[in-house]
Here is the input.
Amino acid sequence: MATGMPKTFYLETFGCQMNVHDSEKVIGTLVQQGYAQVQSEEAADLILYNTCSIRDKAEQKVFNRLNDTKKLLKQGKRFGVLGCVAQQEGERIFERAPYVSLVSGSASYRKLPEMLVQLEAGRGRITGLDDRQTDETFVTEFTARSNPHRGYITIVEGCDKFCAYCVVPYTRGKERSRTSSSVLLEARQMAEAGFSEIQLLGQNVNSYRDPEGKRTFAELLAAVGEIGGVRRVRFTTSHPRDFTREIVDAIDAVPTLCDHVHLPVQSGSSHVLALMAREYTREWYLERIGWIKAARREISMTTDIIVGFPGETEQDFEDTLTMLAEVGYDAVFAFKYSPRPNTPAITRADSIGEEEKSARLQILLEQQRDQQRVSYERHLGQTLEVMVEGQTNARGQITGRTSQNKTLNFTTSQPIRPAAGSYLPVRVTAAFPNSLVGEAL
Ligand code: 5AD
Ligand code: SF4
Here is the structure.
């Protein structure tokens, strides 16, 4: 540091909800250590990027960003790289970007206070990279939640699934769960603080194993849903291998559990699923979908797809298209396969050309859009409860979100706008492939 200690910080987050929530915990930790958060790199002594390496594009974004910001260095700023790129690239980051002083993966965030002390002492090349085999989780009472109504709780960190394409087991480390008592304590405190929506997070949230042995994942879900003041409980992301009928039963039994399941299938072809080491077949997955469809409540389903995995034939891709048609998802997040460092699939030739991947992605997204264009119409005339999100769009509509996690933009005849975080019944008057429109009752 040129002048004194770094006392202001800027933090930017890339990647998934786990990263977003990790950042809330990192911010809380820094504030607790006497730092003040600022909203621009220019105003900050310490610039932090919490990074994602799920696909090459996400990773490149961070290095571009570091390059762009480098010019600020002459003003004596310090840089830290956190998260998945930090863990994946490790000390190589110091070679690629010598002005970086701190590199830490998420499994080492518990040690941030110590790392900050070293940073303040003027040391460079501080690392938190050796904790991937830890059993410890990162829990702090200082979490700086950015939304006052909807809050995240990490219940599982890391991942032991080792899907052939995926960096997460290497970047987030071994799978470890928090005790259900500590999760419930945090959820109760959040409910008391006014949070009405709680989202339980984990890379494989439903492979949750209570270290105390008190509750299954479904029992934990139900217990969070029964806390006074909690109106909505969501969970993400579920792995089909760990998806139990008990989860469907819990959603049926506890009205505060949202009627939505995100269940990434990745491919509709058993051949590709085997290559991906997903450990299930198309039929096995569809059996779980059958449980969800047999529920008393209408449970909305969404998924993730990878197109162009090495070895994916035309027929395999067709199988994915028929899978989407058969399940009838309400949203599909589809990605072109991107070879990732350290993963088993990196040894297979990235055999499907970029053009072919793009063509398959395009076909899939168009089919899905056509399907949603029709399926969202099932809500016409229904009255759905929304949680008010706050913003008003260009048409003067207020944005709300349904329990099924759909955007429902609505108008109201009331002179006073409903407050963000409030709940209202809204009658659906129009349907689009990705959103609904309605009138508040
Ligand atoms: N290439 C493309 N997509 C990937 N995903 C994970 N790894 C890769 C990869 N190497 C997708 C999966 C996962 C989502 C979060 O990102 O669909 O469910
Ligand atoms: Fe990105 Fe995966 Fe890391 Fe989330 S866990 S930040 S999606 S690489």
